[in-house]
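Objective 1b. Sequence-to-structure analysis of PGG domain-containing protein.
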Amino acid sequence: MQREMLWFKEVESLAPPTIRGARNKDGMSAEELFRESHRDLMKHGEEWLKATTSSCSVVGTLIVTAIMFAVALTVPGGNDQNFEYPLFIKQPLFKIFLFSTVLSLLSSSNSVVMFLAIFTSRYSKEKFLKSMPTKLMLGLSSLFISIVSMMIAFLSTIRLMLKHTNYTWGVLPIMMLAIVPIFLFVLSQFPLLLHTAAFSTYGNIFNR
């Protein structure tokens, strides 16, 4: 639907101003004819957007509630019994853990807000041109940042826990496994994000 809107706007910009308001033999203007002929496409686009945003918002909500709040409230290594501050507070890995946890929580919250905005929007044809794709890009980008940050926080915690043990050899296999969900997300969602951002919303599909 977005591409059809881009073509419509491009043809409209090339048409002489004197014929832009012209009507056909059925008394319909170009905009009215476009809306009528693309009614089914708009409906399919709305259904696809709702299904996509619903699935992604579930993932974002799970990261916020079930994972990141638990991670934020559970300090790696526990607290010092005398001074009540984290035992690993001076460790660089703890700072990485803290930063990545906050970043993941904020970005996942932002993605949920973006997906909710799409889900509750009024689906007019004008919104398929810029508004919906922009919100979708922001939501997917925020969700990607959230997943990456969550994995960094997880790996930082594992490294802190195993630092002074005989199981440091287990860090590398865990790191390799942690890359899998990131790779799967990129593989499944990056083509959509790239197409929307580079070729439609902020790119030039007409090469001029």
